[in-house]
């Protein structure tokens, strides 16, 4: 039972990482599977260890690393990544749930016979994380005149690397991160809702434009009459 939980947490952590950066978790799985004993990929996922796949993932990571730090370009990148990040999350979860790691010695026991379940779960998790990331970035850009884009992007990349390694080495900590993420998501939603209500209240309190125009016209007529 414990291994099933750890197996699931490993997949959740890598899928969450993919929601922040599509290529970091896959590249880490590729490198660890190819050059270390920390991850032993099964036959159906052995393609991740291929040198060409590793190189392509590295190139794509560099492209996203640069694009995500340029205002406006980062928004276009997020639109494109709406498909790529969930796909990456599905692949990362699927590969992780089938692989031996330093904490999981009997992989696939929880998802045996239903290998599509971790892939689908990873896609959903990555899409949710990507959605919050894509929604938050325009706010950061507007509030900082674009200066916050590289800072936010760098923080997301660091978090993606951290989550990927933690998911493989110490997946129990993913529970802590998920609690923090849910708390942060709720806080962001409440803050945006409060700001929306404040704007609506301010609009209701302001006099109608037509009334302002009428007052101005009456004053002009009175002045002309004098």
List unreliable stretches of 5+ residues.
none
Rg from Cα: 24 Å
Structural class by secondary-structure content: mainly alpha
Q: Helical region count? A: 8
Strand content: under 5%
Approximate shape = globular
How much helix, percentage-wise, in residues? over 70%
Strand tally: 2
Largest sheet: 2 strands, antiparallel
Q: End-to-end span in angstroms?
A: 91 Å
Structural domain tally: 2
Arithmetic mean pLDDT = 82
Strand order of the largest sheet: 1-2
Order of helices and strands: HHEHHEHHHH
Give a brief description.
By secondary structure, the chain is mainly α. The chain contains 8 helices and 2 strands; from the N terminus they run ααβααβαααα.
Question: What would you note in describing this structure?
Answer:
The chain has 226 residues and is mainly α. The protein folds into 2 domains: 2-171, no CATH class; 176-226. 77% of the residues lie in helices and 2% in strands. The protein is built from 8 helices and 2 strands, in the order ααβααβαααα. It has helices spanning 2-20, 24-35, 51-67, 73-97, 116-143, 148-169, 173-205, 209-225; strands at residues 39-40, 100-101. Strands 1-2 form a two-stranded antiparallel sheet. Helix 1 (2-20) packs antiparallel against helix 4 and helix 2 (24-35) runs antiparallel to helix 3 (51-67). The protein starts with a helix and ends with a helix.
């Amino acid at each position: 039972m414990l291994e099933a939980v750890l197996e699931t947490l490993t997949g959740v952590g890598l899928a969450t990482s993919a929601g922040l950066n599509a290529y970091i978790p896959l590249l880490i799985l590729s490198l660890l599977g190819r050059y270390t004993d920390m991850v032993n990929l099964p036959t159906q996922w052995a393609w991740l260890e291929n040198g060409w796949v590793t190189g392509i993932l590295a190139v794509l990571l560099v492209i996203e690393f640069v694009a995500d730090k340029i205002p406006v370009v980062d928004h276009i990148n997020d639109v494109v990544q709406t498909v790529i990040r969930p796909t990456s999350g599905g692949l990362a979860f699927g590969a992780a749930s089938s692989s031996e790691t330093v904490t999981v010695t009997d992989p696939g026991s929880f998802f045996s016979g239903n290998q599509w379940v971790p892939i689908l779960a990873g896609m959903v998790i990555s899409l949710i994380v990507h959605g919050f990331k894509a929604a938050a970035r325009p706010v950061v850009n507007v509030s900082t005149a674009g200066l916050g884009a590289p800072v936010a992007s760098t923080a997301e990349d660091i978090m993606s690397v951290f989550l990927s390694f933690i998911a493989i080495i110490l997946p129990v900590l993913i529970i802590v991160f998920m609690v923090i993420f849910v708390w942060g998501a709720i806080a962001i939603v409440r803050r945006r809702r409060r700001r929306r209500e404040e704007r609506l209240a301010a609009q209701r309190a302001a006099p109608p434009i037509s009334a302002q125009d009428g007052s101005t016209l009456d004053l002009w007529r009175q002045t002309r009459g004098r």
